Amino acid sequence: QQQVKQSPQSLIVQKGGISIINCAYENTAFDYFPWYQQFPGKGPALLIAIRPDVSEKKEGRFTISFNKSAKQFSLHIMDSQPGDSATYFCAASREAATDSWGKLQFGAGTQVVVTP
Amino acid sequence: NAGVTQTPKFRVLKTGQSMTLLCAQDMNHEYMYWYRQDPGMGLRLIHYSVGEGTTAKGEVPDGYNVSRLKKQNFLLGLESAAPSQTSVYFCASSGGDHRGLSSYEQYFGPGTRLTVT
């Protein structure tokens, strides 16, 4: 049973458009929410991360929106570019827990294709 | 710095054969992890290690064993491979000192694609 549910499974967006990926979690002890980006044939790489003390974090064209009461968070890719075509994974962790050891619970992933 | 490296990149095994996947990191990270990636299931944690000489089970440990004899290396072993272990395996490491957001960042290797026939 996945502790982090991610949608949609895949997404096609035109160049210049906005890509939106949503994630939901149940465990209220989660306190660290990263997004990883994975290109074909490569390992995932950290894209952006947020803690629940803020509702939004922006880095360039990438923004995380966080809704603690709804237990949901989302990734917005503004002005999407063909180079953004990749698989995106949301994840969650209990950073403050002494027995967490940095373990991440990953969503199932969203394949984003940006058409020219 | 090479970061996290994995060997081999590809491997085909017959059912019942054994093999060891090697992960090496040159970032002096304390924590290391082994994941498997299957379509539609994201990354699932197999085993992890929080320091040299220590290992622990993750979400899907059955059929796998690990060892961390040196801080920079984390080995994943399959004693008797099964077709259900066909997957892409990723190793990751993190600083593990819990002193900032970046210490939780996991750095991933390029993966090993394993096929068991």
How would you summarize what this structure contains?
The complex is a heterodimer of chains A (116) and B (117). Chain A is mainly β and 116 residues long.
Structural write-up:
The complex is a heterodimer of chains A (116) and B (117). Chain A has 116 residues and is mostly beta strands. Chain A is built from no helices and 11 strands. The radius of gyration of chain A is 14 Å and the shape is globular. Chain A starts with a strand and ends with a strand. The model of chain B has no long low-confidence stretch (mean pLDDT 92). In chain B, a hairpin with a 5-residue loop joins strand 7 and strand 8. Chain B has strands spanning 4-7, 10-13, 19-25, 31-37, 43-51, 54-57, 64-67, 73-78, 87-94, 107-108, 112-116. Chain B is 0% helix and 51% strand. Chain B is built from no helices and 11 strands. With 117 residues, chain B is mainly beta.
What does the secondary structure layout of this molecule look like, with pairings?
The complex is a heterodimer of chains A (116) and B (117).
Chain A: E1 4-7, E2 10-14, E3 19-25, E4 33-38, E5 45-50, E6 56-59, E7 62-67, E8 72-77, E9 86-92, E10 105-106, E11 110-115
Parallel strand pairs in A: 2-11
Antiparallel strand pairs in A: 1-3, 3-8, 4-5, 4-9, 6-7, 7-8, 9-10, 9-11
Chain B: E1 4-7, E2 10-13, E3 19-25, E4 31-37, E5 43-51, E6 54-57, E7 64-67, E8 73-78, E9 87-94, E10 107-108, E11 112-116
Parallel strand pairs in B: 2-11
Antiparallel strand pairs in B: 1-3, 3-8, 4-5, 4-9, 5-6, 7-8, 9-10, 9-11
For the report, how would you describe the main beta sheet of chain B?
A: 7 strands, mixed
CA radius of gyration of chain A is 14 Å
Series of H and E elements of chain B? EEEEEEEEEEE
CATH top-level class of chain A: Mainly Beta
Query: Are there runs of chain B of 5+ residues with pLDDT below 50, and where?
Result: none
Class by SSE composition of chain A: mainly beta
